[in-house]
Amino acid sequence: MHGLATDDSDYALSDRDFELIAGIARDQAGIVIRAHKSAMIRGRLMRRLRALQLRSVAEYCELLRSPDGGRELPSLLNVLTTNHTAFFRERHHLDHLRSDALPETYSRALKHNSRVRIWSSASSTGEEPYSIAAMVHASQPPKSLDLRILATDIDTDVLDRAERAEYSREVVERAPADLKPLLQIEPTGSSDMVRVGAALRRHLTFRQLNLVQEWPMRGPFDIMFCRNVMIYFDGPTKKSIVDRGADLLRPGGWLYLGHSESLSPPHPAFELIGRTIYRRR
Ligand SMILES: C[S@@+](CC[C@H](N)C(=O)[O-])C[C@H]1O[C@@H](n2cnc3c(N)ncnc32)[C@H](O)[C@@H]1O
């Protein structure tokens, strides 16, 4: 067992080691990390150094290069992902969902197979899929519908947290005042933490899914959220995800992208119908 790093030089990330980490992020998760992010990456690796009680970043990179390196990859990807999110983030998407997409989806489902499927494809710690569930609940779906929300992410740590549905009061307080009651928060054993209501939680299924690998679902989905994740990918990766998203969305279904992720050039399968809101043709 090694002691922890004590000298600043132990934390250094050499160009060669940066290339290793950036190469893993690109090849395993599609995430592009540019050289100016080196200090941020070094900071994130500290979590792994502490957990493994390693003395230096160089030692950690040797572990990655060793025959045992493959076993470390999921934990490395967990620290490399950026998980920033919030309840009702980019609120106009959630407002559109409640006022337009959900009512139309329900009417259609009642005439067809009663099935409603929604996918939050980079769900992070759960604020996005629970915000979707809050809008579903508020829009009073007909009881006869078979309605599921699938929430996926590559990062197993955030998925565990999302599944627990427990948030600090501070995080919940940041939600817009008029929407906060829709989360139907419940007390937990701790005075600082609250839980999203059971009526919302029951709509959700959490699964690990890497957007740049195979997607096991057959769909079709009625609604897909793919927000604030494609900013980390290069052009061909983004295009391939949008192509596959188009195949999985039913005609007339909706795709919500993050505010800085508009489809450029326009995609033939999608019509832009609002700010970063697209409709499958
Ligand atoms: C910035 S968060 C966005 C969360 C939420 N969609 C939102 O807009 O608030 C980005 C999420 O994408 C996930 N992610 C990054 N690369 C991914 C990949 N290849 N496959 C699936 N999820 C990925 C990260 O783990 C992270 O939780």
TrEMBL record:
Gene3D superfamilies: Chemotaxis receptor methyltransferase CheR, N-terminal domain, Vaccinia Virus protein VP39
Binding residues for S-adenosyl-L-methionine: N83, T85, R89, E128, D153, N210, L211, R227, N228
InterPro entries: Bact_Chemotaxis_MeTrfase (IPR050903), Chemotaxis_MeTrfase_CheR (IPR026024), CheR_C (IPR022642), CheR_MeTrfase (IPR000780), CheR_N (IPR022641), CheR_N_sf (IPR036804), SAM-dependent_MTases_sf (IPR029063)
Pfam family, one: CheR
EC number of the protein: 2.1.1.80
GO biological process: methylation
Reaction catalysed by this enzyme: L-glutamyl-[protein] + S-adenosyl-L-methionine = [protein]-L-glutamate 5-O-methyl ester + S-adenosyl-L-homocysteine
Keywords on record: Methyltransferase, S-adenosyl-L-methionine, Transferase
GO molecular function: protein-glutamate O-methyltransferase activity
Enzyme class: transferase
CheR-type methyltransferase domain boundaries: 6-281
Function: Methylation of the membrane-bound methyl-accepting chemotaxis proteins (MCP) to form gamma-glutamyl methyl ester residues in MCP.
The protein's name: Chemotaxis protein methyltransferase
